[in-house]
Amino acid sequence: MSIEFTASELLRMAIQVEESGIRFYQTAAQKVRLERPRRLLLDLAEREKEHLETFTSMLDSLVPAEKDSQTYDPDGQAALYLSALADEQVFPRADPVALLGAKPSHESVLRTALGLEKESIVFYAGLRQMVPEKLGRNRVDDVLKEEMRHVTILRQELARAV
C-alpha cells in the first residue's frame, strides 16, 4: 500500500519542522554563553520564521481540491506518519542541551547546527518530490536554497572557529 499526501498535509508537516527549528534555535541561544554563537542561533531562528511564513502562506492559498485526499484513510494514518516524521527527522524535540552539552563551545554549536541544517535539506528534498509544480514546488525550492545558504554560513563560521 502506498501513502499519498495532500498538499495540505505536506505543508502542515513543513510548518511543524519550521516551528521545531525556531524553538530549537531560540532555546539553544538561551543556553549558549558565548555571544557570537548566540547571535548566530538567533539569526537562524529568524530565518526559520521566514520559512514558516512561506509555508503558512502556501497553506492558506490552497483551494479545497488541494486539501482533500483522494486516498481512503479513515484513521488519518498519513497525517500521523507525516507528523511523526516531521517531529523527529530534522529538529528533535529534545532539549538543545542534550545535543549541545551543558557548556557548548562555539565549535560544538556550529557542528550541531550544521548537522540539523543538512537533515533539513534531505527532508525538504524529499518533500519537494511530493509537491506538484502547480502547488508550489518553486516555493519549496526557495526554502531548499535558503537551507543550503544556512549550511554555507555555518561552514564558513566553522572554518573561522577552528
- Name the helicity range: over 70%
Q: What Rg is obtained from the alpha carbons, in whole angstroms?
A: 17 Å
CATH-scheme architecture: Up-down Bundle
What is the CA-CA span between the terminal residues? Answer: 49 Å
Reading off the top of the CATH hierarchy, the class is best stated as Mainly Alpha
User: What are the low-pLDDT stretches, counting only 5+ consecutive residues below 50?
Assistant: none
Name given to the CATH homologous superfamily = Ferritin, core subunit, four-helix bundle
> How many domains make up the 3D coordinates?
1
Tally of individual helices: 7
% residues in beta strands: under 5%
Average of per-residue pLDDT values: 78
Give the CATH topology.
Answer: Ferritin
Structural class: mainly alpha
Globally, the shape reads elongated
Give the H and E element order. Answer: HHHHHHH
Could you describe the largest sheet, including whether it forms a barrel?
Answer: none
Count of strand segments: 0
